[in-house]
Amino acid sequence: MGGDDSSTEFRNWVHESTDLITWTQIDSAPWSGRRGHQGIVVKNKLYIMGGAEGSGVYQNDLWEYDGHNWGELKPQHDWPAARAMFSAFVTDGQINI
Hints:
The protein is 0% helix and 38% strand. The protein has 97 residues and is mainly β. Strand 7 (62-65) and strand 8 (70-73) form a beta hairpin.
């Protein structure tokens, strides 16, 4: 999902594969094209966070995908500052950055 390609444009494309050989573009996500973001799965939902747009602007947005629909979440207290090229992992059903 997302990233930049040989044309140096930043993308927000989403692809899927059932065999890890054949890939099909299924969507362009509503979040801006970017790289250096993180994608992580918690309780069968995909979360996309952070990254940098082509203009160099860092993001601190958070998106949720349930397999059918995207929605932007609006975290409130103590949400990390905008960032790119970071790590995220899940322990006990919680996202850690």
